[in-house]
Amino acid sequence: MLGKKKLLVGGLSALVVGALLAGCPPKKELKTEVGTAEVAQKVYVPPGKYDEFYAFLSGGFSGQVSVYGLPSGRLIKIIKVFSQDPETGYGYTPETKPMLMTSHGFVPWDDSHHPELSQTDGVPDGRWLFINANNVPRIARIDLSTFETTEIIEIPNSAGNHASPFITPDSKYVTAATRFSVPIPQKDVPISSYAENFKGTLSFIKANEPGKMDVAFQILVPGYDYDLAHCGKGPSYGWCFFTSYNTEQAYTLLEINASKNDKDYIAAVNWKRAEECIAQGKYQEIPATYYHNYYDEKKHMAFSEVKKSVKVIIPKDCPGVMYYLPTPKSPHGVDVSPDGEYIIGGGKLATVIPIHSFSKMLKAIEQKAFEKEVDGIPVLKYDAVLHCEVPKPCLGPLHTEFDGKGFAYTSCFVSSEVVKYDYKQCKVVDRAPTYYSIGHLMIPGGDSAKPWGKYLLAMNKITKDRYLPTGPELFQSAQLYDITGEKMQLLLDFATIGEPHYAQGIPVDIIMKNVKKIYPLAENEHPYAVKAEKDARVERKGNEVHVYMTMIRSHFVPDNIEGIKVGDTVYFHLTNLEQDWDIPHGFAVKGSEDAEILVMPGETKTLVWKPKAPGVYPFYCTDFCSALHQEMQGYVRVSPAGSNVPLKYYTGTPTAQK
Amino acid sequence: MLGKKKLLVGGLSALVVGALLAGCPPKKELKTEVGTAEVAQKVYVPPGKYDEFYAFLSGGFSGQVSVYGLPSGRLIKIIKVFSQDPETGYGYTPETKPMLMTSHGFVPWDDSHHPELSQTDGVPDGRWLFINANNVPRIARIDLSTFETTEIIEIPNSAGNHASPFITPDSKYVTAATRFSVPIPQKDVPISSYAENFKGTLSFIKANEPGKMDVAFQILVPGYDYDLAHCGKGPSYGWCFFTSYNTEQAYTLLEINASKNDKDYIAAVNWKRAEECIAQGKYQEIPATYYHNYYDEKKHMAFSEVKKSVKVIIPKDCPGVMYYLPTPKSPHGVDVSPDGEYIIGGGKLATVIPIHSFSKMLKAIEQKAFEKEVDGIPVLKYDAVLHCEVPKPCLGPLHTEFDGKGFAYTSCFVSSEVVKYDYKQCKVVDRAPTYYSIGHLMIPGGDSAKPWGKYLLAMNKITKDRYLPTGPELFQSAQLYDITGEKMQLLLDFATIGEPHYAQGIPVDIIMKNVKKIYPLAENEHPYAVKAEKDARVERKGNEVHVYMTMIRSHFVPDNIEGIKVGDTVYFHLTNLEQDWDIPHGFAVKGSEDAEILVMPGETKTLVWKPKAPGVYPFYCTDFCSALHQEMQGYVRVSPAGSNVPLKYYTGTPTAQK
């Protein structure tokens, strides 16, 4: 993919330059070692059987989360998070619009990067999935009993929320950090005053109580680009680690100017210490406007609240809260081994994979083995914290996960491969090509204290000729490997929605036991819900008309409405009375700004309609619901403004029709 | 799916009622006859190999088209048609918003039902794919060299454009018809005046010249619900056939009131005769406002024109233009055999599958074997046109396709199965269960003069327990069958985006040879394109600021901009200078109402930004494009309104930074 174009390769090593200029590997037809039949069976899930793992892949520029089954690679759901969804009306209906409100106004879509499962004792527990928005910094909580987004917290004092939302082993916090440093708080200053005025923040967000996400505290840090993070576990519980690049503090042409230093930093943050400083008042309360949006599952409605300030720790006022670990070169991933001892940096321009030791780090701190200090943050000596450098592993190492058997797997963007190595012995034991340009990889549980292993999923940035061509725009590509043997075995290519920057995998049993199949009608507290056809009605309030409508196979009540006028705003409040799984109904009326919506069993949703011209307009069910689905329709009569046609509504019976 | 709820089953036969009340088949784990290994191999496409067929599935309530590879069932693309796409900015950017304009204003999404490939000599030729919008009646053309929507025509005098867009064998016309009858033209009348005031239209849309879609003519017909269509070929070339239901002309509680008549009609339209009447002036020119939107691929921009009238034929003024064929009972599908002789109705409440004979129909017309006339339209005698009724085929027959070997395959919604029969002998030879509630089915080329056969795809309405549960909302389900043998063999379940109402399949070679990989930069005629970095610039025009920006690995030019003021509207016109396949770049700036966009190689797109507060805002590439993708970023400085900070922009070099 780094094809034939001239590339600006300023400060890069000769090795990387060579690779950058070498272009993509040519298309290969892969031979599998054991023959197609055996491989085919490994990924084939016969009709009626279930996959073994749920995989949650971020949508990147789609702003959503895609749910796949593994090993089949089948897409089974797109979870609506940071983007309007024209299918269900998410982000369009009055009930869901508040979910996408921010201090910058309504943001119709965003860039979602890193899904992260909640954990208990360092092991994914299947309760929630968190994911970040990068462009307008936010973190969302997805409830894995409904696979719906139930909460979004905005991150103030941030730009480019990339190192997010990585979780502590007890789900107490998820992280957020500025990929782009900016004036904090924002102010109108020359861009050239970057070194003086631009700062970063590392944020810790309360995550363990649904409906109560908030920014616990932020740490104000030097103006580097903070990239990725992972939190410690076991012995390193209480710490989180963040990569940074652009320690050069460039603000233009970063591809050259931010690639000069041989080492950048991993920031090691002692959040337990930060909690102490907060308790001791060693922070500044800074005014900051940010939104907290949450979805009330019983009211079937989202609400926003605006928060006004945030606690910020200045490192020099809270000694011991963080240290920098020098790490070659422009590191991307930072990944902690299941036992919590090893911290692996993915130096994307490095020719080695550096592995730091947490116990050596503690010792170096104790011995004050500092190289220097930056803004009150000690920089530890590289040799004092390094466990080893994996020699000549690959080109462009990015991100690492673990199989729980003593091996680490690092994705290598430039050389398009996965390298497997013994991270204690620092010895490469296997490598497998990927097609093409792998970004992150995922092993189920592979970033936790207890990886389930078995599969490795490569998420590749370039697809080119891997699937049937679909014009200039192509889906991206995932590749599934069997990692149960000594050698990785490529099983399957499958295309992905958006750009999966990262993923999480979890055995299906953990999720399945909690999944809800319907919304209980009896618990529906939507203010415009009706729970029986007899209560369906139409009410006028000035120019507003509220239609309390029910849906059940195969009719609406009411299905004939007259007395609507041009100039009215009509609110169709639709309650799906079904209480069986997988019986949604839809509603569409011609010319609605909101087009049409889907309503799940037991749910209430609202479609807003401002009819523009007199006439008789049909409405209909948009989700094929029964043999008589096509008959599930009705009419609204719209009269001119000022007309005296009275409000009238009914569902016909043979009697009523006369 | 027709579960435990009480159902209103007014006029239905006892047989159907029994099935309606019986509920879903229980979940079964299917045994394949030949063992998993062989079946697995039949659908397994090894990494690096291609699928055999492109399959285009409508998105239903998603408003889009999904592209799958068969036999693997892998989703490889979502084509943006009738819905805003938060991933690419389709329907949000100034370039693409005109595509979604209608006489009802901007419609952010719709309900897409029936993809239809262009044909030459009755065989799909891979040039274009057409698809209808049901809610706000429209037809779109998708260019299969780019997989992008290039044209949308609105259908006036219509509501619920369902019997659409079925094509003539030479691609001269695609059809459109009113699923919901309405006053034509629209007027404010009581709904109870349905029989008097409500009419349908059958429309023929010019399809064979890109950029020139238009309504050739409409036929005003009685106020029934027109459901589906297919056009004749071979001997029946010059005719199209439309099903209708609700010949009862009910307007409320249709599930009872429109299910009373034992037979409804298939409308047989002689469009050659209609052309004669148009040529002879036997039509009325009716005022009608409707939009024609087209996308100029070189300008990278969509344009709308508003049309003002339409030619309408009244059947009694054009004798011979159409006939009704009585057809049991509430027919859904109408499908013409590859040889053009047999017309199969899918009477969804019928207990037989009626097969009409085209040659018998011609003879009946000649002999005036009429039962009666409706609004000047002769109703032919059922026995005079019937070839046969396939006896006791299944419950709820809906839709039929052909394998080219003398067999028809009909989907049966109520009994959840596909039935295979010899349509000349009228003899069922095989049946296969589907899970659950099949709607339409698709055989590659199965609705054309030359089916490719091999596979049958069942598109099922109910998914329930076929995949891992994902909460109350589930994807729908497709099932792939091998139809090369005497018995259909179920191969694979895969989940689908939205609700696929219909699909088209075509061998990959036909499409692949024409697919474009980039947009040639030299041909880019976007008024704000820049084709070299030296031409990048920023221009102020009052409160409008136009940024002519380039993107190439791994930087923007300019990447630092100052002198923007609060109150400005900033237009980022982004040109991707890459000319390699699969190197898109993205652009996001914090707080933009349009969030972020993707730009393909050689393309120009515009993102509109209205900064709300002073500060310095980062922008960045949202599509991982190189090893230095994370470095592809820049800053915009925003000063207060009235500030005197001058306009300034650059991309730094080591010199420029000083």
TrEMBL record, chains A, B:
Signal sequence interval, chain numbering: 1-22
Gene3D superfamilies per the UniProt record, alphabetical: Cupredoxins - blue copper proteins, YVTN repeat-like/Quinoprotein amine dehydrogenase
Keyword flag Signal: yes
InterPro entries associated with the record: Cupredoxin, N2O_reductase_N, Nitrous_oxide_Rdtase_Sec-dep, Nos_propeller, NosZ/Cyto_c_oxidase_sub2, WD40/YVTN_repeat-like_dom_sf
Any one GO molecular-function label of the UniProt entry: metal ion binding
Entry superkingdom: Bacteria
Pfam families: nos_propeller
Entries under SUPFAM superfamilies matching the protein: Cupredoxins (SSF49503), Nitrous oxide reductase, N-terminal domain (SSF50974)
The keyword Metal-binding belongs to this UniProt entry's keyword annotation: yes
Subcellular location: Cell envelope
Record-linked NCBIfam families: nitrous_NosZ_Gp
Name of this protein: Nitrous oxide reductase
